[in-house]
């Protein structure tokens, strides 16, 4: 537990504001508490280890403090070489050749039933990775923050609908700070159980340790990564930009549920408490500025369409994801990915991909892409029994491009 220093020099250990205690007046009691705290810290250090061993990665839970995950399937893939595989042990560790883990071209995959698959780019020797339990809600979202640098204290902040979820206020309507980490050995996790209708959400990372040094580059050098999960899928990974500043505004979800990638570090002298209001006012950023869709992205999207038509949904999803990785502004690939997720039975992921398609669509075919995406979202809400949300998306589809199927869909849900 964190002590409560004087406000002027308040350490982050004072965060447990939801567990205020009365002042301790007796010196013997203070001494006993300090000894108990020291004993607990030593016990934790013994179980967690001061550092993870070389030649291994450690798998943790993204939502349960200090829980090591045993039995996760860990694969290391390198171009032109056979994949290496291992299972995590009781300490959550999976051992590999250290040189393979240090290969910057290697990719790590971690799977376990009931969790979203985690994909990460190496080097990954000695690093910790947090697995996210699958989310059931169509409008659920989980954001996991991790970083590498010792001595750096980063915080997750979620600002929405006049609320601010962070270490001093870990709960909000349908949102929760699952884990609060004071150092790089644990993840810091925020879960949105269900998006509030009409609310705008902004997620950011604050370098608490340099809150009085807004021009510090410690955040950029921390190795911070943000993993965004929807349903059973890791849909986006961000790495801290190489920019000075102590606040990294990562993403925003607008009132219609569309993702806006901000991914920008700036300097701020706002206190942790005041940061929520500052984030709500923070400028956004439009769709990624890209040239015409590159040939490789187009080719990957075409491979996805071929796989989709042949019934190979796994191959189609992988190809569409590759197209998006090559061109993050490729609206058609997002639209196609949404259709593949629908066929795969991944409704939450399909809604996320379709909303990205809506946000990015431009040019001559934009109305068709948006109309189809709105219709797909409406159908998923209808199947889930959320008829008001289904109707609003069917109406949006018809506004984009009138079609008989949209009229029929509106007639279906109007009776509920």
Order of helices and strands: HEEEEHEEEEEEEEEEEEEEHHHHHHHH
Helix count, DSSP H or I runs of 4 or more residues: 10
Largest sheet: 6 strands, antiparallel
Low-confidence stretches: 1-50, 289-293
Overall structural class, as computed from helix and strand content, comes to: alpha+beta
Shape: globular
The end-to-end span amounts to 51 Å
**Order of strands side by side in the largest beta sheet?**
11-12-13-8-15-16
Number of strands: 18
- Average pLDDT: 86
Helix content: 25-40%
Rg over alpha carbons = 23 Å
* Amount of beta strand: 15-25%
Provide the descriptors you would attach to this structure in a database record.
disordered N terminus, 5-stranded antiparallel β-sheet, 416 residues, 10 helices, 32% helix, alpha+beta
Provide a descriptive summary of the structure in words.
The chain has 416 residues and is α+β, with helices and mostly antiparallel strands. Helices cover 32% and strands 23% of the residues. It is built from 10 helices and 18 strands. The strands form 4 sheets. The chain has a 6-stranded antiparallel β-sheet. Helix 4 (295-309) runs parallel beside helix 6 (331-344), helix 5 packs antiparallel against helix 6 and helix 8 runs antiparallel to helix 9 (387-400). The chain starts with 26 loop residues before the first helix and ends with a helix. The model is unreliable at 1-50 and 289-293 (pLDDT under 50).
Summarize, please.
The chain is built from ten helices and 18 strands. It has 416 residues and is α+β, with helices and mostly antiparallel strands. The model is unreliable at 1-50 and 289-293 (pLDDT under 50).
